[in-house]
């Protein structure tokens, strides 16, 4: 059955792979599932046809036969559950990998997105200089604890899993702040994720759409 996902026609990151379709592309590449991409303009995101797929008018979405999904975590989970390669077979190990997916999205990504928002959208506010270090401290606090847990391990819990896919994707969003590089083991962890052939294919595919935009 054909899988179709949506992505920005012109991603605001110009092809740095930070929009969330890259996570879905990466998951599909890891499990070896071919997919098509429907590119969507910002205007089309908010139109009824797209909202029928995604109630919040965003990318990515995922269509496969009569199944339509939105929300990256749900999509990656669906891919990981349907195909071998992203979740361990043993029930407890599987539960832990899923826990890391949620930790990436609910614990680690929140302060990182907050920092991006401050840096991108709040620079001109009178309270920017006061707020920035507070938000940076929240990112450092979170990454410091994650770095401690990761230690010298290659991946978060045994072999590479959907938990690592999501965590690496989330951490990539902190790189431009410079904070990721303050934690060499996390920076190396992210680099290991980026070195995976499946990530490279996903990154190249989104870059092909966005290069020069
Ligand atoms: N919780 C949802 C999920 O995980 O799927 C969030 C989806 C989401 O935020 N989608 C964004 C979107 O469609 C694109 S990925 N935004 C358009 C809108 O809301 O109108 C977020 C994103 C956008 C841009 C960059 N960037 O330029 O670096 C990074 C991440």
Describe the structure.
α7 crosses α8. The radius of gyration is 17 Å and the shape is globular. The model has no long low-confidence stretch (mean pLDDT 97). The longest helix has 31 residues. A four-stranded mixed beta sheet has the order 2-1-3-4. The chain has 213 residues and is an alpha+beta fold. The chain has two domains: 97 residues, Glutaredoxin (3-Layer(aba) Sandwich), CATH 3.40.30.10; 106 residues, Up-down Bundle (Glutathione S-transferase Yfyf (Class Pi), Chain A, domain 2). 57% of the residues lie in helices and 9% in strands. It contains nine helices and four strands. β3 and β4 form a beta hairpin. The structure holds S-(P-nitrobenzyl)glutathione (GTB). This is Glutathione S-transferase family protein. It holds the Pfam family GST_C_2. It comes from Pseudoduganella dura. Keywords: Transferase. GO terms for molecular function: transferase activity.
């Amino acid at each position: 059955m054909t899988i179709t996902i949506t992505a920005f026609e012109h991603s605001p990151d110009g092809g740095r792979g930070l929009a969330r379709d890259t996570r879905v592309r990466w998951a599909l590449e890891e499990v070896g599932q071919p997919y098509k991409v429907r590119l969507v303009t910002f205007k089309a995101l908010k139109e009824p046809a797209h909202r029928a797929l995604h109630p919040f008018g965003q990318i990515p979405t995922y269509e496969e036969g009569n199944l339509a999904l939105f929300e990256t975590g749900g999509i990656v989970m669906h891919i990981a559950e349907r195909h071998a390669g992203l979740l361990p077979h043993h029930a407890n190990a599987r539960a832990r990998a899923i826990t890391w997916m949620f930790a990436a999205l609910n614990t680690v990504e929140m302060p990182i997105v907050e920092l991006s928002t401050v840096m991108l959208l709040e620079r001109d506010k009178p309270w920017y200089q006061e707020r920035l270090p507070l938000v940076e401290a929240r990112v450092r606090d979170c990454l410091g604890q994650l770095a401690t847990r990761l230690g010298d391990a290659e991946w978060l819990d045994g072999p590479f899993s959907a938990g690592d896919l999501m965590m690496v994707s989330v951490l990539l969003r902190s790189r431009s702040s410079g904070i990721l590089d303050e934690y060499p083991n996390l920076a190396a962890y992210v680099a290991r994720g980026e070195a995976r052939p499946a990530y490279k294919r996903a990154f190249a595919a989104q870059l092909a759409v966005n290069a020069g935009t």
